[in-house]
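ok so for the tutorial part 2 we go from a plain amino acid sequence to predicted structure tokens. step 1 is just haveing the sequence, like this:
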Amino acid sequence: MDRCKDLPTAPAGVELDQLDGLQVEIPAKALAALAEILDQIAKGRAVDIQGIPPEVATREAAALLNLPHPRLLQLLDEGAIASRISNGRRRIQFVDLVAFKQAQAEAMDELAALSEDLKMGY
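step 2 — the prediction. this is what the tokens look like for a chain of 122 residues:
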């Protein structure tokens, strides 16, 4: 969304005080997400907001990445995605899943650009 780059980036965030005496502080990290949510609502789209745990189990991670569970385990064994063992079970940081997914998307974009440069017709 183009409007996000125009948002204030001060670490303190933004304070709203025109809500009938109610003061709301919005941390700077939340401003871009809030702007995207408001943009989607303005376009008439439904918005679903859910909390995400900082760590997920391997089956949840596989579902989030749309991968078969054995493939995810292989990636974890290879070190492509960081994980830790807690109570005998592997746990994966959600931020590591997002980073892996972004890296995969960037690699796919690069492959698409290369195929276009080579005029492969895909």
